[in-house]
Input
Amino acid sequence: MPNDAGAAGAAGGDGPASARIDVWLWSVRQIKSRSAATAACRAGHVRINGEPAKPAQHVRIGDEVRYRVDGFDRHLIIKRILLKRVGVPVARTAYTDISAPRPSPMDAPAGIIRDRGAGRPTKKERRQLDALRGAPSEIDIEHILDGERR
Output
């Protein structure tokens, strides 16, 4: 058979020595489509061993892949080369995920919402907003909400 490299990579044999980064990201289910993986590489969201990656750049076992998804970086170390898309349990054996955990929505500061048409905040309102965003020990919410001066 002329092209058994893909089947060997998916089945778990010795497998190929390298694969294109866009194919690998797609096959291990990190990106939904191969065209999206190619676009991510072209946009500069994918790095291999710290260097920006082109879609046709080859990766090998032991390479470090970083890519940006939804505003967060994923940091993967390649343990296995796959050329065909496989199921999630098999895909998870192809890499080690060493990325930092995403912050929970409760840790992120809440956005401050102003009424529509209220215009720009006045200097007094800006100071109150700065006080709300400051350190928790500095906030005196009762005075801010009552509009009293310190």
